[in-house]
Specification:
Layout lengths: L2 E8 L5 H9 L4 E5 H6 L6 H10 L7 H17 L9 E5 L5 H6 L4 E10 L3 H15 L7 H15 L1 H6 L4 E5 L4 H13 L2
Parallel strand pairs: 1-3, 1-4, 2-3, 4-5
Length: 193
């Protein structure tokens, strides 16, 4: 069975998590932020140590452990009743993060739409990340060098995923608008599905 999914895309700080969390409160939508799944791991676990090693440099965790962790998480939430694949649509944030992950998950996900939160002003993204670092104690958002490396990683590895899914599924939303306006634009897209 393929999982129905809407993918939240955008550079670090574009608002994927903010919008995904809101959408996840709507009945029959289940938000899964892969970064949150990683951040909730025990630092004593092998995968927790791998996450810290890569995220502290602003790099993506390798594909195999990322997809394995994501599959485990979805299986656990299904078994616990938090996610019902027959009635719920996944709102995915942070996966797939590159072409290889998109290819690996192609037989698992039925992607209905890809919401691309674009922010042409990199300075705004940096300010958002630095505010988030203070509010959420996110070390990966505090260091300017790591932020720049994450942006570069996004441009090189994640942006090509937009082409993988094609123009028909990609819906661009300006993330420099107020969060309510961004949400309104996203809901307009989802209502048409």
């Amino acid at each position: 069975m393929k999982y129905r999914a809407i993918l939240m895309f955008g550079a670090p700080g574009a608002g994927k998590g903010t919008q995904g969390k809101i959408l996840g409160t709507v009945p029959n939508f289940f938000h899964c932020a892969c970064g949150d799944v990683f951040r909730n791991l025990s630092l004593e676990s092998d995968i927790g140590r791998i996450f810290i090693e890569y995220s502290s440099r602003g790099e993506l965790v390798p594909d195999e452990p990322t997809v394995r962790l994501w599959r485990q998480y979805i299986q656990n939430t299904t078994q616990s009743g938090l996610f019902n694949p027959t009635t719920d649509t996944l709102i995915l944030d942070g996966i797939p993060r590159n072409l290889q992950q998109a290819e690996i998950l192609d037989d698992t996900l039925e992607v209905r739409a890809l919401i691309n939160l674009h922010c042409p002003d990199v300075k705004k993204l940096i300010k958002r990340l630095q505010r988030r670092a203070l509010r959420e104690n996110r070390l990966d958002d505090a260091n300017l060098e790591i932020i720049r490396n994450r942006q570069k990683t996004y441009d090189q590895l994640t942006k090509p995923v937009l082409d993988f899914y094609g123009k028909k599924l990609v819906h661009n939303v300006d993330s420099t608008q107020t969060p309510v306006k961004v949400l309104s634009d996203i809901l307009r897209v989802i209502a048409k599905l």
